[in-house]
Amino acid sequence: MHDRPHPVPLPQERERPTSLGVNSVCTFARALLRTNGKSATNAISTIRFSIAAASVPLSAGERDGVRAVVNSNFVPFLLQSWLGLLVLVAALTCFSPFTYAADDPPKKTFFLPKSPTAAAYILGRLSNKELTEAPRSEFVYVALLQRKGLERKYRVEALEGLAKVRNTDTLTELLGGLRALDQKGEVSEPVLRDLVVMLLQTKPTDLAGRRNDLVKLAGEAQLPLTRQMAYAALIMADGSVDKVWPQVESAPARLSDLLLSIPLLRDPNLRAALYPKIEPLLHQADPAEVRRAAITAIAAVPGHDAETFNTLAALVKSGTERDAAVASLQRIPRKAWPQAQAAILIESLIAYLQGVPVDKRTDAEVISAFQFASDLATLLPPDQAGVVAKSLRAIGVSVFVVRTIPEQMLYDKTLIVVEAGKPVAIILLNDDAMPHNLVVVLPGAVEEIGTIAEKMSPEPDAQGRHYTPESPKVLHATKLVEPGQQAKLSFIAPEAPGDYQYVCTFPGHWRRMVGTLAVVPDVEAYLATHAAAAPPKLTEWKVDDLAPDLAQVSAGRDLAHGKELFTKLACAGCHKLGPEGTSYGPDLVESYQTYHTNRADILRQILEPSLVISNRYRNFQFEMQNGDEMLGLVLKEDSNTLTVQTGPSAALIQTLKKSEIKLQQPQNSSPMPLGLLNQLSKAEILDLLAYLESGGRLPVPEHPDEIKN
Fold this sequence. Notes:
- The chain is of the alpha+beta class.
- Helix content is 45%, strand content 12%.
- It contains 32 helices and 16 strands.
- The longest helix is centred in the N-terminal third of the chain and has 16 residues, at 20-35.
């Protein structure tokens, strides 16, 4: 190892010659090392590596602070006398990478110390990208399993690698990994939440074979989340709760863990069978921790939504375990919310919120209550809902729920009005089958940010967000929200009034999924002087409604207006039309040729995009061996791989190994949204069709002075 070349020195260190004193110390240190045994030599070698490794940049202070601990055999030697300290200084000086020749090229070989502690430290200095690219070894597999923010495929790879290296199996390594992460404390919870999915995807028969280990983990783990994972796995292993329940019902802490494990269960039948055991606990005040856990668990039990809503609503109105009850009520499907309860519940919630100190009104539980009151207001007549909204704004926190409209690529709210400098919470609920996010940007920045996002790779940023450009024009952003999930964005509204905007930056979506965040000095004054925009008139157009007028496409149409609609509807985000657009969906010029310019057939394809789907443009649902799922078009296939595109951007093209694909399921629905023309008038549809039929060519003005800049 002593002859391994080191990185090129910094200029200031190339220019500074080593002093005679340092050279003398180095000579002495080398002689001393030759006489003080193998352990010291090994320790210095380890120190040399950890300083010199090109992929692990360390500051001078870090070098001084950590080198002596990377080999436990060397520590006593250092502490015995001043001589040991002298050798340490000599090692850090003589073997520094900066004392080697500048023209020695660095090797790409990746070295790790044999000490697990030292190896863990060095690997901990790597970025996620560097770690995933590191040559595989037992220490690297452990780091991949325990590192926060990695994709699940790396966890799967780590478990398989450890099982092979240690001659075990993946479930053994998974349980061992859970124990190791549990010992690290709460900092490990994000990784544990990733691993719970993998644990509960294990076959019940395999879990049953490790039942004793699961019992031990449930009883001895220090983190509640780890214990809850173990209880959920036990219920899966047994096929019911009957075996576990008698063992925990007399121990409140263990019973609470068991109750909180119920929402983790994937099988709805297992959850449904637990209703008779959970419901009585909602009415027992003692112990309080068990009732809180039961309140959380009951919302995950299907088949009793109406009864559960009434029971939890009574708790809210009485002020009993209000925070837990509100959180569970929000998890009950909205279609089960009884309108008769809305006004009374809202009155109770407003009274509670008015009593919350101002500095506590942005706490998560308080925002949740604001959100629930706002959601309940949608069940009221418009005039009553307006009074509730005014009352909530007067309290001081504005909470808005923004939903995605299924298969429309639209937000259900396109205007949010907030007071400058006041706290705001936006909850994005994704009811669509595609992922979406919500990004707040400066006024007029939507196109710039959307265009940048379309060119981004599908790698998350430092905050785990996808397709969120690093730009001062991006103020706030949620993570990418998968179908059926939600995200909460809490922030202080800008001090400067203006029409800010919020947008979905998933590639191709920004042209349609955009709304205005109006920041104003006085919300009430703004609403009084700005009449609420009437909801757009929606028409469920049929081919028969428009067929008699299709002859009018031939002449007299406004092609410039048609081009505006082509852009507004985000057609250009997926389709090529002459020089315009993106090659994700079919080329529209070719489509017109395919249908021989039959306008009725072309219109039918727009109104009913899933009626005829060619294989080239059919979405496939992929389930990977590591548990990941994706939806995309197949661009190319060979004997070993598939090239797949998951969205209208070249950055979303990836190659999948067929061996890594567990299931490939063709979809019967087109990626093109339904209802694309529902907001247009008949005249606008005819203008759009005329522009499409022109192949994207606008007429050339007869006179130069007609050309508009």
